[in-house]
């Protein structure tokens, strides 16, 4: 269950990272409210997961999920570059997350 909680914390990290862009410098009210809610949810779920998952592992997985999701969102919705090197880097992050999950005690 802690890993599932951590996964959802990572999903909320994607939401708030993307949400910051939609706030347009915190000048748009509803996107800002939504982003702050996602931040709070992400941090809360991370704190719950930290009760059972080592801190370094949990933090790396949390940020990895956020990074991968944000990059993919940028590629799909903002037409950011999708060159081979970016894809390889995403795969390296995924392999790091999987490795940390396997090695977590």
Structural category is mainly alpha
Beta-strand content: under 5%
Tell me the domain tally.
1
Q: How many β-strand runs?
A: 0
Spatial separation of the terminal alpha carbons: 14 Å
- Secondary-structure element order, N to C: HHHH
Low-confidence stretches: none
Care to describe what's here?
The chain is mainly α and 105 residues long. The chain has one domain. It contains four helices and no strands. The protein has helices at residues 2-22, 29-49, 55-77, 84-103. Helix 1 runs antiparallel to helix 2, helix 1 (2-22) packs across helix 3 and helix 3 (55-77) runs antiparallel to helix 4 (84-103). The mean pLDDT is 95.
List keywords for this structure.
81% helix; single chain; 105 residues; mainly alpha
């Amino acid at each position: 269950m802690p890993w599932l909680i951590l996964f959802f914390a990572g999903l909320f990290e994607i939401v708030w990272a993307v949400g910051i862009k939609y706030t347009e410098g915190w000048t748009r009210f509803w996107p800002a409210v939504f982003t702050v809610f996602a931040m709070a949810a992400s941090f809360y779920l991370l704190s719950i997961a930290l009760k059972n998952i080592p801190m370094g592992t949990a933090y790396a997985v949390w940020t990895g999920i956020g990074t991968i999701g944000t990059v993919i969102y940028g590629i799909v919705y903002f037409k950011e570059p999708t060159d081979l090197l970016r894809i390889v880097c995403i795969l390296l992050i995924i392999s790091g997350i999987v490795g940390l999950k396997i090695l977590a005690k």
